[in-house]
Design brief:
201 residues; mainly alpha; two-stranded antiparallel ribbon
Length: 201
């Protein structure tokens, strides 16, 4: 039974990882280009993994996204800005790990306190999206507001407020989308988990 459960968990994690990779490399699925930045839908996949599988597995799936995004930046397949800022793993990897970890933790806490399932999923979705936006923007402001050696010909300090404004504006629809889609997708999946069976009985 234990081996079967472990094999099932690994298979599900592999499926989520495959979805993340497809979202990263198939045009218009995981990233929608808006100006110098991309609006992403990949955070929704990470949050769904976190609420269905738990915070640690959510962190693993988030880590897959972060590593793939980091590789994309290194191989010049990201956005114009992404090829500059996402080469820093503190911006490309760490926030994505924390999305899964924190969204999964919040969901488990809400469920433990008997919050309504749909509301718990919506709140966890919005929170996970905001974690991504705040940490990525914070990383950009922290590491690049004083200039970039890669873009020595561009006044990056003057450009930073614009970047933060655009990214912050993008963060709002990302959070709204997560708040709507996470409950819609995760609710049927939760029927096959311990938490879901308890709530649907």
């Amino acid at each position: 039974m234990g081996k079967s459960s472990s094999a099932s968990r690994i298979s599900i994690l592999g499926l989520f990882a495959a979805i993340i990779i497809l979202q990263n490399y198939v045009p218009m699925i995981g990233y929608l280009p808006v100006g110098p930045l991309n609006v992403t839908t990949i955070h929704i996949t990470v949050i769904i993994a976190a609420v269905v599988l738990g915070p640690l597995d959510g962190a693993l799936v988030g880590g897959v996204w972060g590593i793939v995004d980091w590789i994309r930046a290194l191989t010049v397949t990201s956005s114009a800005l992404g090829n500059i800022v996402m080469v820093n793993p503190l911006i490309s990897v760490v926030p994505r790990i924390l999305i899964g970890l924190l969204a999964g933790w919040l969901f488990s806490r809400l469920v433990k306190h008997q919050a309504k399932l749909g509301l718990s999923l919506a709140v966890s979705g919005v929170f996970g999206a905001l974690v991504n936006t705040v940490l990525v923007l914070g990383g950009i402001a922290l590491f690049y507001s004083n200039g970039s050696a890669v873009l020595s010909a561009i006044n990056f300090k003057a450009l930073t407020p614009y970047i933060l404004l655009v990214a912050g504006t993008n963060g709002i629809p990302e959070a709204i989308a997560a708040g709507i889609l996470v409950p819609l997708i995760a609710t049927p999946l939760l029927k096959y988990t311990k938490i879901g069976r308890q709530r649907f009985e």
